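Students often ask why we bother encoding 3D structure as a string. The short answer is that it lets us treat folding as translation between two languages. Here is a chain of 87 residues written in the first language.
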Amino acid sequence: MQKKYWQNYFADEILERGLNYFEEKYILDIDYSDDKITALVDGSKTYTVTINFEDEEITRMDCTCPHAYKGNNCKHMACVLYSIEKE
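And here it is in the second language, the structure alphabet:
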């Protein structure tokens, strides 16, 4: 998944919720490295989001929320991706 096209991998409803979480500053902490972002995102609980990169490609996204546990891309992931896009 190319970083610049990440929105294509989310349902519109999830993108809208993720943008709202970003705008409402639900990210509690975020740590950047060359190949990984780890963030704590508030919600009904505090969830850990991990996004791995190789060059400009997203190679893996994980979140500890129930929606992601079922194999879906979630609003917490979208929130973190909005944060790096807006930098």
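Translate back mentally: The chain has a mean pLDDT of 92. Keep this in mind for the problem set.
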